[in-house]
Specification:
The protein is globular, with a radius of gyration of 20 Å. The two termini are about 35 Å apart. It is built from 5 helices and 12 strands. The protein has one domain: Lipocalin. About 15% of the residues lie in helices and about 50% in strands. By secondary structure, the protein is mainly beta. The longest helix is centred in the first third of the chain and has 15 residues. This is Lipid A deacylase LpxR family protein. It comes from Sedimenticola thiotaurini. It holds the Pfam family LpxR. Keywords: Signal.
């Protein structure tokens, strides 16, 4: 975009972000109790246009979420208490999200069904996540996340309308094969993530973090098990738990502890997953539909940069994903933009 091609454009963009969040900013030393008098918002955009520059495979994802440090609803707390592997600790939060993902084949010009390319598909969903930090030491934090997601795959997800409308807006060719998309199917997904954060102080306020994680998902949308490692290098790492990503992806949350200092960090990591079920490749569960032979093992690599000042964090990243099905000619690459901010009541 033209606005980003000069220094004045970047300054204007940053000022708009700061103005759009909230004029009232808590002091840096505010406790977690004070942060309960408000909530954390996040807007995540993922698009292959910012990665490979092509419109194929995982074409686009949008997710808007809200996180609160207040007492989670009883049904979600009860679900966590019923599972022996979910651990409650000194800090518990609930995060709600709504989002949409869009998938297309490599050839979007053809109107015919392309048997050896991935199906057209849209996924419209809402989720609730129970989060808890149960270890808080000077050099270590440990937490876990339990999530439940419900939604719809197929024409009712409006993936075709959104993509065609966006392409019309930016003046590029519309995809022509949406008549071949997956059929309508309700989706349910349960996820669990455990994450360890080890902090290593390097001096002058700079720290290095190593953060391994394990993740599992069960449902008719995705079923998989995986694990990975994220590295961060920068200032103010304890004020942050890394930017969110749309599942499947690296764990992150909208939480940003307000700070009067500029915090920043570079981050990079890898995650591997063993996929037992991926509806966007395996096709509909209860109806005949287009499908391809998925690969069992998939890997992600991500790198990016985040900056955090007062109650706002802005992050840019790039994700490389290995081939997901047998006939796929190339890997997937997409960019991600995240804006997270705290809004006091």
């Amino acid at each position: 975009m033209q606005i980003f091609r000069n220094r004045r454009g970047w300054r204007l963009f940053c000022l708009l972000l700061l103005a759009g969040a909230t004029p009232a900013v808590p002091a840096a030393e505010d406790s977690l109790n004070n942060l309960k008098q408000g909530g954390f918002w996040s807007i995540q955009f993922e698009n292959d246009l910012w990665g490979s520059g092509d419109d194929r495979f995982y074409s686009h994802g949008t997710e808007i979420s809200y996180l609160s440090l207040k007492q989670p609803p009883g049904w979600l707390s009860g679900m966590g208490d019923a599972l022996p592997f979910f651990k409650r600790g000194d800090v518990t939060a609930v995060q709600y999200a709504v989002g949409q993902k869009i998938f297309t084949p490599e050839d979007t010009e053809s109107r015919n069904l392309i048997l050896d390319d991935r199906p057209y598909a849209g996924w419209l969903y809402g989720s609730a996540n129970l989060m808890s930090r149960y270890v808080d030491q000077p050099n270590l934090q440990v937490g876990n996340i339990l999530g439940i997601t419900v939604g719809i795959v197929g024409p009712s997800s409006q993936g075709d309308s959104i993509q065609k409308g966006f392409h019309d807006l930016i003046g590029v060719d519309k995809p022509n094969g949406w008549d071949n998309q997956l059929e309508d199917e309700p989706g349910v997904l349960l996820t669990y993530t455990r994450r360890w954060q080890y902090f290593h102080n390097l001096g002058s306020g700079v720290a290095f973090e190593t953060a391994p994680h394990l993740v599992g998902a069960l449902g008719n949308i995705y079923t998989y098990a995986g694990g990975g490692m994220m590295f961060r290098l920068g200032k103010g790492l304890r004020n942050d738990i890394a930017p969110p990503n749309i599942r499947p992806g690296f764990p992150g949350v909208p939480f940003v502890r307000p700070s009067d200092r500029v915090n920043w960090y570079f981050f990079a990591g890898m995650e591997g997953r063993a996929m037992a079920r991926n509806i966007f490749l395996d096709g509909n569960t209860f109806k005949d539909s287009h499908s391809v032979d998925k690969k069992t093992f998939v890997a992600d690599a991500q790198f990016g940069f985040a900056i955090h000042y007062q109650n706002i964090r802005f992050a840019l990243s790039n994700v490389w994903r290995s081939r997901e099905f047998e006939e796929q000619d190339d890997n997937v690459q997409f960019g991600a933009i995240n804006l997270s901010f705290f809004v006091p009541f």
